[in-house]
Amino acid sequence: MDIERQIDEFVLPGDTIALSTLPSPLDSSNTITLGPGLHYDKYTNAFTSHACGHVREPSSLTYYIDGHRISASSLTTGDLVLGIVVRRQLESLLVDIGYNELASLSLYDFEGSTKRTKPNVDRGDIIYGRLKIDSECQPQITCVNEDGKADGMGVLNENGYLFYIPIDVANDLIHHDNLLQELGNEIPYEIAIGANGRVWIKAATTRTMIALRKVILERAKNKIDTNQLKTLFQQSLVSQF
């Protein structure tokens, strides 16, 4: 069944945008502009998404899906990425990683997966995996290392929280920044950072996850030092949201 969505909400390919939000193009008094990621089906009189992202309305009667697309040069083979499953096929998954093509992920590229025991993965699940881009620039993902072990990759817990940051900030957090370790000394949490600019966090409380997100986004906007960010984190934990 199609899921009706509203402006600024996150959608997956195939989701229906509520007609109460978008006037029908059949009404000649309205001129609607549909940007990337949106499609109008004249047979069902429905607006549907064919991309992952948030529904945006930059101006009156102009709509598009803000899918955080990234250029082909931004990712390389071996990068760890976060993706959203958009379709399950017989032997594989199609995963949106913000690339110009959907990435394929074999159902056998999970630890312990066999023909009899395929993983329970479905549309909308969040995947953390390692990227491989072939000679024709087709992206693939695997969720096992060379020894067939998950090594932290796979389907992430549905109770986590996914958000976006600039790719350069994501790479800083992955390779050079001690902020995450410092915050981990303050309070336990789980985090996965993709080289594609996506961050997934999970903590014991929603308040903690919001505080973590606030600090990471502040790190993305302003080059302030770790001590200032730790102070902001503590203030966010005790403040009312």
Descriptive notes:
This protein has about 240 residues and is of the alpha+beta class. It folds into three domains: about 5-65, RNA polymerase II/Efflux pump adaptor protein, barrel-sandwich hybrid domain (OB fold (Dihydrolipoamide Acetyltransferase, E2P), Beta Barrel); about 70-155, OB fold (Dihydrolipoamide Acetyltransferase, E2P) (Beta Barrel); about 160-240, 2-Layer Sandwich (Ribosomal Protein S8, Chain: A, domain 1). The chain is built from four helices and 17 strands. It has helices at about 165-175, 180-185, 205-220, 225-240, and strands at about 5, 10, 15, 35, 40, 45-50, 55-60, 60-65, 80-90, 90-95, 105, 125-135, 140, 155, 160-165, 190-195, 200. It has a five-stranded mixed beta barrel with strand order 9-10-11-13-12. A hairpin with a 4-residue loop joins β16 and β17 (about 200). α3 packs antiparallel against α4 (about 225-240). The longest helix is centred in the C-terminal third of the chain and has 16 residues, at about 205-220. The protein is globular, with a radius of gyration of 20 Å. The protein starts with a strand and ends with a helix.
Strand content: 25-35%
Q: How many β-strand stretches?
A: 17
Biggest sheet, open or closed, and with what strands and sense?
5 strands, mixed, barrel
Q: Which fold name corresponds to the CATH topology of the largest domain? A: OB fold (Dihydrolipoamide Acetyltransferase, E2P)
Q: Give the count of helical stretches.
A: 4
Count of structural domains: 3
Shape: globular
What kind of assembly state do the chains in view correspond to?
single chain
Judged by helices, strands and strand pairing, the structural class is alpha+beta
Order of helices and strands: EEEEEEEEEEEEEEEHHEEHH
Level-2 CATH architecture of the largest domain = Beta Barrel
Distance between the termini: 34 Å
Q: What percent of residues adopt helix (DSSP H or I)?
A: 10-25%
Instruction: Identify the CATH class of the largest domain.
Output: Mainly Beta
Major β-sheet strand ordering? 9-10-11-13-12
**Low-confidence segments, ≥5 residues, pLDDT <50?**
none
